[in-house]
Amino acid sequence: MLFRFAADTVLVLHLAFIVFVVLGGILCFRWRWMPLVHLPAAGWGVFIELTGGICPLTPLENLLRLRAGQSGYAGGFIEHYLLGLIYPAGLTRDWQFILAAIVILANIAIYAGLVIRRRRDRGRTPTRPVPPA
After folding, report:
1. With contact defined as beta carbons under 8 Å apart, do 73 and 65 qualify?
2. Which of 18, 64, 82, 123 is least buried, going by the fewest C-beta atoms within 10 A?
């Protein structure tokens, strides 16, 4: 039971990481330090897709599932609804290149918007309240 819970937790974290890789740049509009966290994560996601590598979370999850006595991904809410998103059937090298391109283009658009916003904000002069006469 504990190993299955741990495997499900790894699966949810894996999905959260994927969402962060694709859309985490949006958080940079709120926190100026976020690119220091997001850009390496996005780079890792692109690297894994372009090289056909395996994210370390995948073997960890599989190990935990084996320890839980599971032979596959059948059963349960998490397996049924999230596995297809993280491990889609028919994932080919061509699709991996397309996914990498989506990550790159989404992040270029987000960071371009961030740069434009920061430049616009720098151009504004701070307004001071006018003292009463």
Report:
1. yes
2. 123
